[in-house]
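This part of the workshop introduces the protein records we will be handling. The question running through the whole workshop is how a given chain folds. To make this concrete, we reproduce a full record directly below:
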Amino acid sequence: MEKQRIKVHGIIGDRNPIEHDGGVVYTGDHGTYVMYFQGWDDGEGSRVSVYHFCVEDNVGEDLVWVDWKAVAKCAGLKEEELRAHFTVSNPLARAQVYELVAGHYGFGELDHMPREMTLEEAEKEFGEFVDTAHG
């Protein structure tokens, strides 16, 4: 199996995404993606859900089911301001639209089968990858 070439664009959400919820936006051989980390506590310790989803070139065409007016209102934006980011060339800006959708509907709508692991496992597996996103 050939190793995929990856270009990391940066981080959305918190600067320390594994511990405080956020994602790494990157482009690989098969498209642009977000790996988003969302922490929670199961009563026995810190856990992380790792969501992985594609960032399409036209967010509006990809997410036709979204009530954009409701998402914009939830984010404190005008709908036109939100729609202006649907097709921008900057993948971070498009990824932030997905993040707003997930904030309104839940990340499970973007990735129905996230990986779940302890915070320590997430740091071990993804820490170096996240560090590359800091530049």
Observations:
- The radius of gyration is 15 Å.
